[in-house]
Structures are given as C-alpha cells and as structure tokens.
Amino acid sequence: MERFVNLCRNRGIVLWQLYWDAKKNRLYFRITLRDFYKLRPLARKCRVHPIVVKRFGMPFLIGHMRKRASFCLGVLLCFGLVLFLSTRIWGISIEGASYHTDDSIMEYLDSIDIYGGIAGESLECSSLEEQIRQHFNDIGWVSVEKKGSKIFIRLKEVLLVDKEKKEKKGHLVAGESGRVVSIVTRKGTAKVKAGDKVKKGDILISGVVRIYGDNQEMVKKELVHAEGTVVIASEKKYKDSVSKTYKKKEYTERTRRIHEWQFGETKFFCYNPLKNLETYEKYDIIREGGNICSFLSTRFPVSHYVKTFREIIYRKAEYSKEDAEKILQKRFAYYLTRKKDKGYQPREQSLSVRLVNGKYQHTGTILFWREQTDYRSISKKKAVNTKNKRKETDGNNGNGN
With contact defined as beta carbons under 8 Å apart, do 370 and 389 qualify? Predict the structure, then answer.
C-alpha cells in the first residue's frame, strides 16, 4: 500500500483524507473521478484492489435521480411555480379608510383591473394613486407601495366643504310649537324674545331690516337672509307597549348542515341525505361563508357557504315586569337616538311603566330643546305692506345673559 501511495504521488494523482484502518488492514482515501480511472495499472502493479465505498458529486447525483424522475420533475415544477407566483400580486392591504369600506375600495380596484393575481410589472403605483384620488373626492392623500407580492394602500380622508350656496332672502321660522328658551340674532330683525310662546310657522327672526334716517323716519326696507340661533323648548308625549304574553322561540337539537361550493356559475351541494328537512315544522336558516379569497379580489371564482337549518318550536310564555322594562328601555333609547339625529336634545322626562289590560305600557312626557333651522322665503309685496304685530327686539332680550 505504501508503494501504491508513492506511485500515485509520482504520477500526480491527488489523494486526500487518508485514513488507515489497522483492524481491517484497509486504507481509505478520497479521489476525483478522473484520477480514479488512472488507478488500474498502478493497482495491478502493486497488487491492491481499489473498492468504491461512496460516491459524491453531481454526475453521480444525476445518475441516482434517474430512478426518481417523477420526483425530480415535481421539484422542478414546484420551483418554476414559485418563480411564477412571485411575480404576481397576491395581497392588497388598505389602511386609513373610515368612511369608505374596504369592500367598496376593492370593488373600485377590481373595476380598473387591479386584483389579486395580476402581474406585478403591470402595476404603476403613481398611476394608481392618481386614479384613486380622482374617483374618491373625499380622499385627500393616497400612498400605494408594492412590497414583494403585496400592495399596501394607505389613505387619508378629508371632510368635503360644500360650496357656499347663494343665500336666498328669507325668515327664520319656528319648526314646532313651544317656548323660546334663547335667541341670538346675527342678521335680520328679532320678532320674539326668550320666554315667548310660539306656534309652528311663526317668524322668529325676520329677513326684513328697516333702515331709519336721522329724524327717526324709516328710509327703506332691506331684505336679507335671516341668521341667528333660536332654541325652542317643546313637550312631546311618548307611548309604547309590550304584550305580557308572547310566544317564546326555542331550538331543538335537530339540525342539518348543507355545504355549498360555487365554482364560477356552477354550484355543488354536499349534505347528509339521511336528514330530511320535510320533518321539520319550522326552522331557522343561518348562512355563513363567502368568497374564499375575498382579501385578494372579488373576481376569485371559488366560494364556500355553510347553511345550517335549526328546528324551532314556540311555547307560550310571559314577560316579567323587569324583562318588559328592559325591552321598553331599549326601544326608548332608540327613540331618543332618532330624535337626537334630528337635532332634539332631551332635557326633562317623566315616564312610567304600568300593566294595563295585559300590556306593559311605557308612557309619559319628554321636554326637548331644539335649535330652529326652518326658513320661509320673503315675498317682496308682503315685506313692504305687512306690519308685524310683535315688538322688534335686539335679539337678546330675556336671555338673562
């Protein structure tokens, strides 16, 4: 073996990682494939027998992979698929929207061919920013950024200021009957003062302004758009009721689920045929699901829904006074919310719940304050000839401020 190693060295054959196994009387080493074919005459001369224990390198790996051609093809296809998908857009993130919902913005993006799956090269961020600003007038700032396979859309909404409409000359009138709480006149002539009782349609601030000369004689009348803040207190009657007896809905343990898959316009249903809905007298239907990848695009053709049918029965039951009060209070809170949306502010209330003829009745009165915003146009003929019976004030009399 020593002679074999010396001959290899003299012939320029490189051996490395030599290891001598004294028990088996063997010499282990590594050699290149090209030099391995040069060992035959040297081995014959030294009477040694080179045996290949292990093969390393690409040529042997390719030969080994021929036996697993399908696996290698799958790896190549997977690698190619990853490369292809990495060039597409697979996520759209929308941040900063409050008035506009994400769905409405996604629908607009879909209408201009921006959706999950488009080529990333075809997307121009600056052009998309300009399109969004032009379509949504109340969006003042937009930033579109592409990171990897995802689009990040950040925006800020602004409050639109309506263009000032040309003021029409008119009187500020009472929108309801009640008592004037306070009045502040900014333009026009006040016709009432705090504490006066008014009826619906009465003039609160007149749009007719009299101009007097030095001798206290009226020179002319000028028509303006009356402006001011007039708060009127009005009393409203409230009445609501709930029947003491009612039908209570209860669910049984009988349910049935139907899975609905939709591919484009084609639908498939999956359910247990052993459960028949015809045996259910009454049931509720709960439908859950939707587009599988709705966060990408509304164009995604695959949807999944789960319909749950739950059998119900009705039993006769009675509300306790506490339960009836909770229901009536929820209705009353909703009533106040609607009133506040119209500008009414509740100040005092006197309400009670009583059982009358099998019904819990919620009745009483509520005192509301409301700033008046109703106007009436001015007729030039009436403005010249009509004399107002009420004494003109400075608009602040009786406020106590």
Answer: no
Give the per-residue pLDDT at 112. 87
Q: Which residues of 74-87 are buried (b: 16+ CB within 10 A; e: fewer)?
A: eeeeeeeeeeeeee
Q: Are 172 and 372 within 8 A, CB to CB?
A: yes
53 pLDDT higher than 60:
yes
Alpha-carbon distance of 394 to 183, in angstroms, equals 10
Query: What tokens appear for 56 in the block?
Result: 């390393």
In angstroms, rounded to a whole number, what is the distance separating the alpha carbons of residues 51 and 49?
Answer: 6
Q: What average pLDDT does range 297-304 have in this prediction? A: 71
Q: Rounded to whole angstroms, how far apart are CA atoms 61 and 65?
A: 6
Task: Dig out the tokens for 247 from the structure.
Answer: 């039908």
Whole-Å CA distances, 283 to 219, 252, 297: 79, 10, 34
CATH architecture of 91-157: Roll (3.10)
**Every domain range in the chain assigned CATH 3.10.20.310:** 91-157
Name the CA radius of gyration of the chain, rounded. 44
Q: How far, in Å, are 96, 167, 172, 200, 393 from residue 188 at the CA level?
A: 44, 13, 9, 20, 11
Q: Which pLDDT score is estimated for 210?
A: 85
pLDDT at 221: 83
Q: What's the pLDDT band for 163 if we cut at 50, 70, 90? A: very low
Residue 154 · residue 335 · CB < 8 Å: no
Q: What is the C-alpha to C-alpha distance for residues 140 and 98, in angstroms, rounded to an integer?
A: 13
Residue for token pair 């919620």: 362
248 contact partners, CB below 8 Å, separation of at least 6: 314, 315, 316, 317
Cα–Cα distance for residue pair 292/262, rounded to 1 Å: 10
Strand order, beta sheet including 91-95: 91-95, 150-157, 139-147
Which amino acid appears at position 5 of this protein? Answer: V
Q: Where are the beta strands (DSSP E) in 274-398?
A: 283-291, 302-318, 344-356, 359-371, 374-377
pLDDT of residue 10: 87
Distance between alpha carbon 232 and the CA centroid of its chain, in Å? 39
Task: Classify burial at 162, counting beta carbons within 10 Å of its beta carbon; exposed 0-12, middle 13-18, buried 19 or more.
Answer: exposed
In this prediction, residue 284 has a pLDDT band, given cuts at 50, 70 and 90, of confident
